[in-house]
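Researcher: Structure for this, please.
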Amino acid sequence: MSTKPLFDTPGPRARRRHTVIEIACIALIAFGLYEAYEMLDVHGEFSQAAWKPFTQPGLWVLLGQGLLNNLQAAAVGMVLSMLFGTLLAFGLLSRSAPIRIACRIFTDVFASVPLLLLLYFTSLVLPTYGLKLPDFWFLVIALTLFSSAVIGDLLRSGIRAIPHGQTEAAEALGFSGFRTMQLVLLPQALRSMSPALVSQMVILFKGTALAYVLGGYIELLRSATVIGTYYSRSLLQAQIVAAVGFMLVNIALGLLATWLARRQRRQNIAEPRPDNLEVSAELSSR
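Model: Predicted structure, token format:
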């Protein structure tokens, strides 16, 4: 399969110019990193005394508990987002105009509102109406409101990309609209959009760091801040360790999304899309 570039292939002069620009950028970044290292080294940030508190196992237990709380909030938020996002995708594709419009308004509103603002809403406004919950659930509710809107739109796009012939084949076999969506369209949409869904998990995990503003939920950033409070000499070091923890999880999720995308491309090449007769036979077997 051949692809056409979006721009003209650069000639010899353009390639030389690009090489010069790349070398200049690399040199500038290296210079900036060296200056940052020198500044931190002058203030003793790389000294043994600054990192000595991290020889205590208790600090790593605290950091590990904070990271576990981040993962727990992201996992619960993702499960709820998948549930409500699927229902939202059904609503966005509904034949009823009021349902479709209501779901579209919900999607546009909560996908555009900053997650931090949603977190302030859940933690400050909801308690005034008598809904008193632990900070964990205020965080999960904010994550679910934001992510379900995004996932609903993703699944809607995935369902729309499926050839309409499969819907017609299901209807010819007597499937209702809901059963067609449940048994035929949704599984294919989940499969095709799995890399994007994992990428959304990355966004959710990073969003859990906003729980720092709640104060009562001990997540990774809060754990690092607590360590910096007791060991003021090691505040920057604690923040660096927390940043590395976030990076490792996000990189792992990013690699998973890349692997899923490559696997999906290989399957699309190896397995041609079934025609309507094959889909009909599969539906009949179910």
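Researcher: Any notable elements?
Model: The longest helix spans residues 57-92. The domain at 56-269 is CATH 1.10.3720.10 (MetI-like fold).
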